[in-house]
Amino acid sequence: MNQTVKTYFEAFNAGDVNGMLACLSDDVAHHVNEGQIRVGKKKFTAFCDHMNRCYSENLTDIVVFEAEGGTRAAAEFIVNGTYLETDEGLPEAHGQTYRLPAGSFFDLKDGKITRVTTFYNLADWTKQVSNG
After folding, report:
1. How do the domains of the chain map onto residue ranges?
2. Residue range 107-129: average pLDDT?
């Protein structure tokens, strides 16, 4: 398993945004599910602040795949979450829990993540929090 990606996920699960930032290049390209590409640590931090306000999440069943040469990696995992505060344009939050398969793709250079792309099924998430 790529150590940088492993450290990134450990920091995510610890709620350690600074630990995640330490794994990223200064010009990281963050491709979010159903959203715009955000470039740079400042935009990544703002995204994390927003997510931590609206959601409490822990990742389990993480499997990391690494391309030969260590310049690319991918991971699949389960997002175990609680919807804490209503996110704009989404169903109203009232503490619903969800369990959602997801995946991330990474570009790496000089021991830093230069791209993070995350995918999950928004329709599945919406169904879970709407029925919860």
Report:
1. 3-130
2. 95
